[in-house]
Each structure stands twice: as C-alpha cells, then as structure tokens.
Design a protein that fits this description.
Pfam families: YceI. With 190 residues, the protein is mainly beta. It contains two helices and ten strands.
Length: 190
C-alpha cells in the first residue's frame, strides 16, 4: 500500500513537469527499469557512479516526456568520502535532490511501429537547480509494446553552477559524461 502511494505521488510530480493538458491516458509509458551513469575523466582521477533510481514517463501521442533521477542514489565513486563530497559540496543534494529532463521529441516518427529510431529530445535539463535548454540524441528501440531508450551526452559543470575548488582541479573534469538506459512499458492502471 505504501509503495502504491509513493508511486502515485511520483506520477503526480512527473505529470506536473509536463505542460498543462499533456496527460492523455493510454499513450503513456513509464520507466520500469532504468539506470543513469556518469564519469569524470580528469588528469589524476577517474570517477564513475551510477543510479538505478531513474523515473519517467513518455506520452507517445504528444511526443512529450519527463524523467528524473534522485541525486543521493548515485553509488560507485572511489571512496565513501568522495560520494559525500559529491552530495554535499558539488551537487548540494539536500537543496537540489533531483536532476530532471522534460520536453518533447522533435522528430516525426511513428512510435506505434516496431523499429529502431534515432530521435532528438529537446527540453529543459535541470541539474543543481540550474535549468538549461538542451537537445539530446536518443536511440529508441520499439519492440513488443516496450521502448528501450539509450543516450550518451556531456554535461558541463559550469553550465549548472557547479564549482570545482582549485585543490581538486586535476581530479575532477569540468565536463561529465552521462549515459542513460531505460525500459519503458505501458503505464499500469493500479
């Protein structure tokens, strides 16, 4: 019961990310399994982390979407202290607990037909409380009423007001590589 209540709250939050009147019902797909990974390749250190707390919805009629990941859920890193610094000093995840990407698929494709599609997702990427308009290339594989989506793209820390102290300048890259993989299935009615 508690899990169902949490799901309904999440869905309400995600629907608020969409433009008014966007919720259409049967054309809504939700993330059932997803992962966000990032890596920072700096001269003196490679940092990698991932989160399986990706949530999202896609309306295939209106070609709009909203995705979010809970920042404190990222695991990996080179040490627990590094994870603490990530959350407290760089991402300030108490103040900015989620990264969000919401917008529209700008290609004219028929997602009702099985196949592999290369599309561009245009929208607002919010990281560290700073919103940037982005166009991100996404591969979508449609098969058996499911979507497999994947994308790889860079995020510049400076674009999202994430400061790197001089002392770790050679250990943290100013450009973070992000990859997203997710399976979306028709929204459950429960």
């Amino acid at each position: 019961m508690l899990q169902r209540l949490h799901y309904r709250r999440l869905l309400a939050v995600l629907l608020l990310c969409l433009p008014p009147g966007a919720y259409a019902g049967p054309a809504i797909y939700e993330v059932r399994n997803g992962e966000v990974r990032f890596s920072s390749e700096a001269p003196k250190e490679l940092i990698k982390a991932s989160s399986r707390k990706l949530q999202g919805i896609l309306d295939t009629e209106k070609m709009i979407f909203a995705f979010k990941v809970y920042i404190p859920s990222f695991m990996g890193f080179n040490s627990p202290l590094q994870r603490d610094h990530f959350n407290e000093n760089y991402m300030e995840s108490r103040n900015f607990p989620d990264a969000v990407f919401r917008g529209k698929i700008i290609e004219s494709v028929d997602l009702g037909r099985e196949g592999t599609y290369q599309v561009r997702a245009k929208g607002k990427l919010i990281v560290h409380g700073v919103e940037q308009e982005r166009i991100i290339r996404v591969q979508m594989v449609v098969r058996n009423a499911r979507f497999q989506v994947s994308s790889t793209f860079p995020i510049l820390l400076n674009d999202h007001n994430i400061k790197i102290p001089r002392i770790v300048d050679d250990k943290l890259s100013p450009e973070i590589n992000v990859s997203v993989r997710a399976t979306l299935e028709p929204q459950s009615r429960s």
